[in-house]
């Protein structure tokens, strides 16, 4: 959480969120973040609320949410409480995609664990040597 009364420069926000200044400007241009305050010289000044919002966006992006869905979510938030059902639907759909990806990753992890255990036991079957494979009619190159 950010300090409530404090304002942050774009460099500070970049350091705190892991987003580059270029990405922060792009997020503002496409409507992911809005109403960023400015100093008299035009430099951006982010609030604690802006920082919290950006941290949420980084989490959504890290889970694979498409930028278009993030923009839609941001638009809904700006429209207010009447959009809760639509926000809920959008988040639930994304949640299902995240769960599917997690299941796929778990499958891959199980395969890796199996291969590691085979190596540990020394029971990994060796692929046929190229000359043996050719003699048996398999002329595919080996990677």
From TrEMBL:
PROSITE patterns: HTH_MERR_1, HTH_MERR_2. This is Putative merR-family transciptional regulator. It comes from the Bacteria. Residues 127-143 have a biased composition (Basic and acidic residues). Keywords: DNA-binding. SUPFAM superfamilies: Putative DNA-binding domain. GO terms for molecular function: DNA binding; DNA-binding transcription factor activity. InterPro entries: DNA-bd_dom_put_sf, MerR-type_HTH_dom, MerR_fam. Residues 122-143 are annotated as: Disordered. It comes from Carbonactinospora thermoautotrophica. Residues 7-76 form the HTH merR-type domain.
């Amino acid at each position: 959480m950010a300090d409530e009364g404090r304002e942050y420069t774009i460099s500070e926000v970049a350091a705190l969120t892991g987003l580059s200044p270029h990405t922060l400007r792009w997020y503002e241009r496409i409507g992911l973040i809005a109403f960023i305050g400015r100093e008299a010289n035009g430099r951006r000044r982010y609030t604690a609320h802006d920082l919290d919002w950006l941290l949420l966006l980084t989490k959504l992006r890290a889970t694979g949410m498409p930028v278009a869905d993030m923009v839609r979510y941001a638009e809904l938030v700006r429209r207010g409480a009447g959009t809760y059902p639509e926000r809920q639907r959008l988040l639930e759909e994304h949640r299902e995609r995240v769960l599917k990806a997690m299941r796929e990753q778990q499958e891959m992890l199980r395969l890796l664990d199996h291969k590691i255990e085979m190596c540990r036991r020394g029971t990994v079957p060796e692929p046929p040597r190229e000359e043996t494979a050719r003699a048996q009619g398999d002329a595919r190159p080996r990677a």
